[in-house]
C-alpha cells in the first residue's frame, strides 16, 4: 500500500520534469523570425572590425541564418558566424561570406577610393559625423530594411552596415554598396570611384533612399 502511495505521489513530479524539459524546445521552435532578424542584425553590427571596406548580408529561414557578403578582414567571417550561433532560436548558420584576397594594390585602391568619395565636397556629408540626416527607410543598415530583390548580387538577403557607402575592392574592381539620398549622388559617387588611378571597373550598386 505504501509503495502504491509513493508511486502515485511521484507521478505529478515526473510529469512536471518531462514537460519542463519539453518547453524550452517548443519555445525555440516558435522563435519569431522577426526577432531573429533583429538579433542577427544587432550582433553583426557589434563586430569590432566591420567597416567601410566590408559588406555583410544575411537572411533568416526558420532556425537557419545564412550569411553572405565580402569582407576585407578575414576574422570577420568567423566572428560573424560565432556571434549569430549564440542567438537563442538559431540552430544552423550557413556561412557564405567571402574573404577578399590580400593585395597591396587593392589596399591602395581602397583608400584612394575612400578619399575620392568621402572627401568630395558634395559627398562628405555621408561620412559618419558628416551631418547626413536620412529621410526615408534607413539611416544605416542596422535598421530594418527591405531585402535585395531579384537581379541583385544578394537576392532575398538583408544588408548590414555602418557606413552609407561601402567600398568593396577585388582585383582592382570596385563595387559600391549602400544608400544615398538621390540619383545625382549615386552617379557622382560612381564618377569619383572611376576616377581613381588603376581601377579596372566600377559596379555601382548603391540604392537611392525612398
For this entry, give a set of tags.
globular, four-stranded mixed β-sheet, 9 strands, 210 residues, 5 helices, alpha/beta, Histidine-containing Protein, Chain: A, five-stranded mixed β-sheet
Verbal overview:
By secondary structure, the protein is α/β, with parallel strands linked by helices. The chain has one domain: Histidine-containing Protein, Chain: A (2-Layer Sandwich), CATH 3.30.1340.30. About 18% of the residues have low confidence.
What CATH architecture would you give?
2-Layer Sandwich
Main beta sheet? 5 strands, mixed
- Structural class, from helix and strand content? alpha/beta
The CATH class: Alpha Beta
Average predicted confidence as pLDDT: 79
Q: Percent helix among the residues? A: 25-40%
Beta-strand fraction estimate? 15-25%
Number of structural domains: 1
Count of DSSP-assigned helices: 5
Q: What radius of gyration results from the CA coordinates?
A: 23 Å
Find the CATH topology: Histidine-containing Protein, Chain: A
Given as residue ranges, the uncertain stretches (5+ residues, pLDDT < 50) are 5-9, 13-29, 133-147
Secondary-structure element order, N to C: HHEEHEEHEEEHEE
Number of strands: 9
Give the distance, in angstroms, between the N- and C-terminal Cα atoms.
Answer: 77 Å
Query: Which shape, going by the Cα principal axes?
Result: globular
